[in-house]
Amino acid sequence: VLKQRERMALLAKKEALFCPYRPRKSITECVEENGGSFLGSGWDIFHRVNQKDYVEAHLEKRNIPSLGYFKATGINDSKIAEIIEKKERFVVRRNVSSSGDGLWLCRTLDELEKLVFANESLFETCSIAPYWNGSVSVSLNGCINPNGNISLHTLRTQLIGVKELTAKPFGYCGTDFAITKMLSSDLIEECGRLTHHVGQWLREEGFI
């Protein structure tokens, strides 16, 4: 039985086109070394735009608001103290995460201290933001085409943290296509505008 890398090399030599759901460095290197091609973006671009801090910093320069994540210096950071003083919960987010992994909900400094104890590099790799209570997670979908055009696609609502389906507080559980009918036309128009602006930035980054 051939190992995965050997199978990839054989396919690449046969001029196969690769379109991985989530590009990996090892796959990209193997395909490129053997003359293969990608449909879409390879590892270098994907890795760059998968860094949440990097994305938010660049989008904020374009006046596209973020969720307010900030890099804390430690347990006693003044911004954390302000959140706790307001008796609000806060979210700790790893810079690279997906589908609810790398997201934690904290209510007190004690909970944060336990999290830091389990993740020694937490303040180097994570950001913190107030918890948005009662919010709905809407997925904005589009496609950056090779000719540079950006096409918009169906809005959908993400099902997050459904206790019957996941043990993760922010675990992705699926998609609800119908609930978007409850959104106002103004909100749908704003979602389309944001999708287009984000798509323009991604295109400039080389993402297709």
Please write out the topology:
Elements: H1 4-13, E1 17-18, H2 25-33, E2 37-38, H3 43-49, H4 52-61, H5 78-85, E3 90-94, E4 103-106, H6 109-118, H7 122-125, E5 126-130, E6 138-139, E7 142-144, E8 150-152, E9 156-160, E10 172-176, H8 185-204
Helix pairs in contact: 1-2
- Strands side by side in the biggest sheet: 4-3-5
What class, by secondary structure content?
alpha+beta
Radius of gyration: 20 Å
The low-pLDDT segments are none
Task: Supply database-style keywords.
38% helix; 17% strand; globular; alpha+beta; 3-stranded antiparallel β-sheet; 8 helices; 10 strands
Report on this model:
With 208 residues, this protein is α+β, with helices and mostly antiparallel strands. The chain contains 8 helices and 10 strands. It has helices at 4-13, 25-33, 43-49, 52-61, 78-85, 109-118, 122-125, 185-204; strands at 17-18, 37-38, 90-94, 103-106, 126-130, 138-139, 142-144, 150-152, 156-160, 172-176. Strand 7 and strand 8 form a beta hairpin. The longest helix has 20 residues, at 185-204. The protein is globular and about 60 Å long.
Quick rundown:
The protein is α+β, with helices and mostly antiparallel strands and 208 residues long. The chain is built from eight helices and ten strands. The strands form four sheets. The chain has a three-stranded antiparallel beta sheet with strand order 4-3-5. Strands 6-9-10 form a three-stranded antiparallel beta sheet, with no helix packed on it. A two-stranded parallel ribbon has the order 1-2.
